[in-house]
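Memo to structure team: turn this sequence into structure tokens by end of day. - J.P.
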Amino acid sequence: MTEFSNRVHQVVKAIPAGQVLTYGQVATRAGRPRAARAVGTIMKNNPCSFLNTTPKQATPCHRVVAANLKLGGFNGGQQAKIQLLQAEGWKIDRGKLVR
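Reply from structure team:
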């Protein structure tokens, strides 16, 4: 993994259950504010998602969403992302998160 990938994973691991960050916010916190697409690629290739790793060790990539709280992609499929976010208290309306 690259240094930036490691920083992205650390930022995402720090997102508490029930909260989300946008790809842009993750990029900024990882030190590269213009790298939102790179964050998406890193999350797409996340080998430690909640779908294949214990929650304690997982990088909760389902908590990273697109701008304006649109769902964005997920390496386990959109339905799995929806289910994980709903389990953390989010409601989804027309592809966007609402409280």
